[in-house]
Amino acid sequence: MNILKPVTLLVAAAALAVGGSTVAATAADPAGARVTALQQAADQVLAGHPQPLDVTADAVRYEGLTVTEAPAGRAARQDLACDYGHLCMVVGGTKFDFYTCQTWNVRNWTGDGPFTNNQTPGTVARFFNQDGSVRWTSTAYQAGTATWDPIWSVRPC
User: Fold this and answer.
1) Whole-angstrom distance, CA of residue 111 vs CA of residue 106
2) Inter-residue long-range contacts of 19-23, CB under 8 Å, 24+ positions, other chains counted
3) Is the pTM of this model over 0.85?
């Protein structure tokens, strides 16, 4: 059982109660549901990685990775905003923003989505198959659309 989910809901509820959240709760999309959805996306993709450092209504932050809701709209998907030094992608409606050089084991990545490799020019991000072989690479700066299945791990640098 993931203890973070109940704790996350309590943190989100407390933040809303004191006005600390930047996401307004609505009947259609309460902050607690948004936090839970982000945590579930992070749990589903990042099994086996350390616990998150910070969980808010807007993001789940790990050492070297931030997980948020994907930007909305066609224009946002075509031009995925990504800070300098970062590797960003959208997988299944969730944005992953990697900024630490390490291998991240992932799972349940399916479909197509945008990516932006905005790392130092020449930095090569590697995307691996289940057997550990390189499926494809991206050399910074590069942006486009990728097919995520079957990606089993990512190394941003």
Assistant:
1) 14
2) 21/56, 21/57, 22/57, 22/58, 23/57, 23/58
3) no
Query: How far apart are the C-alpha atoms of 65 and 59, rounded to whole Å?
Result: 10
CB 22 within 8 A of CB 30: no
pLDDT in tens, 119-137: 999 999 999 999 999 999 9
Q: What is the pLDDT of residues 78-97, one digit of tens each?
A: 568 999 999 999 998 889 99
Give the residue among 29, 27, 30, 36 at the shortest CA–CA distance from 9. 36
Question: DSSP assignment of the chain, as one string?
Answer: --THHHHHHHHHHHHHHTT--SS---SSS-HHHHHHHHHHHHHHH-TTSPPPSEE-SSEEEETTEEEEEPPPSHHHHHS----TTEEEEEETTEEEEE-S-S-EE-----SEEEEEEESSTT-EEEEE-TTS-EEEEEESSEEEEEE-TT--EEE--
